[in-house]
Design a protein that fits this description.
250 residues; alpha+beta; Diaminopimelate Epimerase, Chain A, domain 1; 2 domains; 4 helices; globular
């Protein structure tokens, strides 16, 4: 069974074509994602061709839970499908959030549609003031003075698993300077990652709603730089998607 290891700004995935994928359950996914005894990844993606220029993406977090969608994973899915000749430069990806668009740009980056972003009210959770946002998956964003030293691992886990978020939440810690967002994200089912695409869209929407940024928004994350642009209320995430290596499972 052949797999491809890919990443988008350091957010990494074990990718399978549907006809080469093993039978996946939570235990198998956890084993594959284990960075000591497995391939090592933040998640597992299975890509299925549906029709011309349309593929389906099934995504599991590293803890074996199923996720609605993943912006970095969508970009990797587009690159993976394009390399196999399943899609052209403009394509659609079926996710649990529905059918979303993707565009392969001339500069090598990929833009993916994340759908509408709904920004909620400010709330107090765990001693922090946060603003909720939905990108098809739940997010909470808090502003901090020093992103580099923010307690993402501890406070992110406490907030993301708080009863205020019954389904759990991805938690973003951001600072906005001259309209540019610095961001770190704790992801439910994974922990802190080098980049979170939907978290970038949530942070961009919160920054715009607060009058601190305008579209398109540049976001700096530990793995590199995203751009989030809004077409109406629909977010488009632009960034790289790269292959690390191809391997096989026994």
């Amino acid at each position: 069974m052949t797999f491809t290891k890919m990443h988008g700004l350091g957010n990494d995935f074990v990718m399978f074509a549907a006809d080469e994928a093993p039978a996946l359950d939570a235990g198998v996914v956890r084993s594959l994602c284990d960075r000591r005894t497995g391939v090592g990844a933040d998640g597992v993606i299975v890509v299925t061709p549906v029709e011309d220029d349309v593929v389906r993406m099934d995504y599991w977090n590293a803890d074996g839970s199923v996720a609605e969608m993943c912006g970095n994973g969508m970009r990797c899915t587009a690159r993976f499908a394009g390399a196999r000749g399943w899609v052209g430069p403009t394509l659609s990806i079926d996710t649990l959030r529905g059918r979303l668009g993707a565009r392969m740009l001339d500069d090598g980056r990929i833009s993916v549609e994340l759908g509408p972003v709904e920004v909620g009210e400010w709330v107090e959770v765990g001693g922090r003031t946060l603003r909720s946002a939905s990108v098809g998956n739940p997010h909470a964003v808090t502003e901090v003075d020093d992103v580099a030293n923010a307690p993402v691992g501890t406070d992110g886990a406490a907030i993301g698993t708080d009863g205020a978020f019954p389904e759990g939440a991805n938690v973003g810690f951001m600072a906005v300077i001259d309209g540019v967002v610095d961001l770190r994200v704790w992801e439910r089912g994974v922990g802190e990652t080098l980049a979170c695409g939907s978290g970038a869209a949530a942070a961009a929407a919160v920054a715009i709603a607060g009058g601190k940024a305008t579209s398109p928004v540049v976001l700096n994350v530990p793995g590199g730089t995203f751009e989030v642009a809004f077409e109406g209320d629909v977010a488009w995430l632009t960034g790289p998607a790269e292959t690390v290596f191809v391997g096989a499972l026994d």
